[in-house]
């Protein structure tokens, strides 16, 4: 794997993740409840399409995670499917393998279906918990052993 970090402009991490959802209020409530995110109290317009919908922004300022849930009035209403071109999944890193057990227990307590903790060694050692949001968008918690 080659890297050109010496000559490219700097990156500071991923700023936010913004899926289009079928019911922005239901999704916002789900992400607040499951991930413990805080809602920014004002909707964000779709710049260049202000009449077409809006976004609800949820944040965890302590960690720097932000999710912008987008509502489009002309949306198709289809559920997400990672086999179509577009988003496959989003993975949230955790600092320790034991955190995956804690997240699995939290998802159980909240009635959110999930894979349980999966430990893999190929192609590198990692562990993950896979679950889905109300629109079937695949989400993961992942710990990578280095």
TrEMBL record:
<dbReference type="InterPro" id="IPR037523">
    <property type="entry name" value="VOC_core"/>
</dbReference>
<dbReference type="Pfam" id="PF00903">
    <property type="entry name" value="Glyoxalase"/>
</dbReference>
<protein>
    <submittedName>
        <fullName>VOC family protein</fullName>
    </submittedName>
</protein>
<dbReference type="InterPro" id="IPR004360">
    <property type="entry name" value="Glyas_Fos-R_dOase_dom"/>
</dbReference>
<dbReference type="InterPro" id="IPR029068">
    <property type="entry name" value="Glyas_Bleomycin-R_OHBP_Dase"/>
</dbReference>
<feature type="domain" description="VOC">
    <location>
        <begin position="13"/>
        <end position="144"/>
    </location>
</feature>
